[in-house]
Amino acid sequence: NNEALYCIGCGAKIQTNNPDGPGYVQPSTLKKYLADDSKELLCKRCFRLRNYNEITDVDIDDDDFLKLLDSISSQKGLIVNVVDIFDYEGSVIPGLQRFVGDKNILIVGNKVDLLPHSVNQNKLLNWIQQKSKENGIKSVDQIMVSAQTGTNIDKLMTMIEKYRQGQDVYVVGTTNTGKSTLINRIISANSDVKDLITTSRFPGTTLDQIDIPLDDGHFLIDTPGIIHKYQLAHYLDEKELKAITPKKQLRPSTFQLRDGQTIFVAGLARFDFLDEKTNVVFYFNQGLVLHRTKTVNADEFYQKHLGEILNPPYDVTEFPKLHQEEFTSHRKSDIVIYGLGWVTIPANCKVLVHVPEGVRVAMRDAII
Ligand code: GDP
Known about the structure:
Helices cover 25% and strands 27% of the residues. By secondary structure, it is of the alpha/beta class.
């Protein structure tokens, strides 16, 4: 059959001879396609982009990754640092500023679709800016986006144009912040660019990068995801992670608490309220059990029901022990458990928070 075939992704004429040319598919792929007409035919390049997560993730102190950062530090350009607004602490890259030199850093807070509409986004932006400062990052600006729904992607592109000053753009982020989703968003927003994307290798390293052409001969460069040990994700298996990760907008759950009451957030966290009477609001994934008990019985309850009523975790054998931290609010505040969610407490409220060893907790001004 001599009929020409075209890639449904980029429209290039399909060919099986030149692996580096447009429209290339492996002969075996073509054969399979011809045997089963119902499938979509994508060239190798589009297939790789569609099924994106192909850039290898690396550890923060991986030698090749440090080389990569070093090579960036001597280039001109803008750094776009993608963070997960649900897991700021797990997303922040320690030493980023030092690695990238004096380049501008634009902070992109992703997953804004998960926040209730009542969130004051300015407060959140201020918080992210302040946290960046604490981590030694001088951000030139920050923006909230949703790579998933497309919220503010246009604004982001305008900002990138503004701050890159005619130079290349490097997108950096830890794993699970949604960096791949965001890159795919950007690619499909510039759909004519699809067949111009190239995968290449950072010189002297084993690490791939993806270059997306900008309209002036410069590139948006996707770098490997960085694996960060503070992410709650690393203490949970895939199924548990699925259970804690919100898929849609958070819905608040309000509790009126009396003296000496405890709320468990599944088996993952525990809040003891030390005041007489308190109204608190929980913002966690809807499927997660919020279980109220008397604080005096809480230890025993946890031991007895961990992995049962209090799940996830499902497998309790390797789950780290809870440790506790005390917080007292001076204003209306959020107690944030990175990667999990937060609790809003009123002013002058004292709370004992228990989380697995290694998981970070912090207090911030309430964002709602
Ligand atoms: P990467 O490891 O940084 O490349 O992250 P991915 O793009 O693979 O995304 C990690 C997880 O976050 C996936 O489950 C995505 O579906 C999810 N995700 C990515 N962007 C968003 C977003 O804007 N909103 C929400 N709710 N989830 C997102």
